Amino acid sequence: MKIFLGADHRGQDLKNEVKKYLEENGFTVEDSQIESHEGDDYPDFAYDVCMKVLKEDGLGILLCGTGIGMSIAANKIKGIRCAKVNNENESFLAKNHNAANVIALSYKLTIDEVIPIVDMFIATKPASEERHLRRIEKINKIENNTYTL
Prior knowledge:
The protein is an alpha/beta fold. It has a single domain, classed as Ribose 5-phosphate Isomerase B, Chain: A (3-Layer(aba) Sandwich). Helices cover about 50% and strands about 15% of the residues. The chain is built from 6 helices and 5 strands, in the order βαβαβαβαβαα. It has helices at about 10-25, 40-55, 70-75, 90-100, 110-125, 130-145; strands at about 1-5, 30, 60-65, 80-85, 100-105. The chain has a 5-stranded parallel β-sheet with strand order 2-1-3-5-4, sandwiched between helices. α4 links the parallel β4 and β5. The longest helix is centred in the N-terminal third of the chain and has 15 residues, at about 40-55. The protein is globular and about 45 Å long. It starts with a strand and ends in a 6-residue tail after the last helix. The mean pLDDT is about 95.
């Protein structure tokens, strides 16, 4: 499984630490090719990473100031379910209950806080319980503008 990483200027240092950790643990990692610089725009990185996640059926990890902007931008892309997570439990729930294929993190987290979040995200199986699958299907219908109450 390939993991795609993207970060604006605020998240670059932490992204580099995450990349090093993942590569040292045998994962194939691809960095966003968008140049990061002061004044860059997080939607560019979200778009780049999410398009790669969709194309190669991988997972994505996005970092910015809070993770909120990245998650909002990512969720505008059909087929992406991005969760802004703060801890290991949220990472588990995002993937297991909501079939998240991308997570967004704040650059203010330390690498020691991020490693368990990333490990959980990668290791967790996607949703399989009927109640979660039913809810995901409703989300898909909203995304496709076919949802009705």
